[in-house]
Amino acid sequence: MDAPAGSSRRLLAAVAAIALAATAASPAAQGPASDGRGNAARAYDELLDLNVRDGLVYYRALKGQRGRLDGYISSLAGVAIDAAPRDEQIAFWLNAYNALVLRTVIDHYPIPQRSSDYPPRSIRQIPGAFERQSHRVGGRAVTLDQIEQTVLSGFHDPRVYFALGRGAMGGGRLRSEAYSGSRLETQLGEAAGECVSRVECVEVDRGANQLKVSSIFSWRERDFVAAYAAKAATPFTERSPVERAVLAFAGPGFLAAERELLQRNTFTLVYTPFDWSLNDL
Prior knowledge:
It is built from 12 helices and 7 strands. The chain is mostly helical.
């Protein structure tokens, strides 16, 4: 027996609505995952909130929750991130880098010592952790070094280098939250400010008349010079480009006494050795 016409129309409408909802919920329909606001990214955000304190990581506890971290990293593999807005792209790659560092560490935790060149349990004790191990992210195969030196450098904002935890005490302070495209400017501003406030990153040594700065400024000298050298104050025009860049980058965070010493313009710029000790709690 045929169903009444009204019932058929209602049934077809219901089926269409269900199909539309399913399509909208599918990853392909949502477009780029960008800074990762999907379920997997929220799980990663929660992992950071639970396991990161003041830039240090509960690696032992995180290792027991690695299924959620693996799920997040797996979700990054096929994301068409190049079509996303710039800030969302940056947030995506920062989150990818930091998550991959976390997984690299817990894959080998506790890290055995293989070399006397680096501290015990350092991520540098893992062969090829940065330059050889390949990861599938954003539709391409990349190493950690390639994310930093090729992908992130292309955005011409050196603050990103202080948003990378690197699994080390000398790196940027890992946040207890993921980076977000909608909040990126604030988050990168905070990362830069944290650098200036930490002696591991910037220190004015009044006794030695030295400005001691992280080796990161040396590693990424070209990027810092391009972004900041022209912004240095007039008294420093005869300084080298990288010195002017450091002064412009760190200047807003100097104390009055530190600023007074630097304005005498007799100080020496010194790069401090990078601390590769594991940022473990």
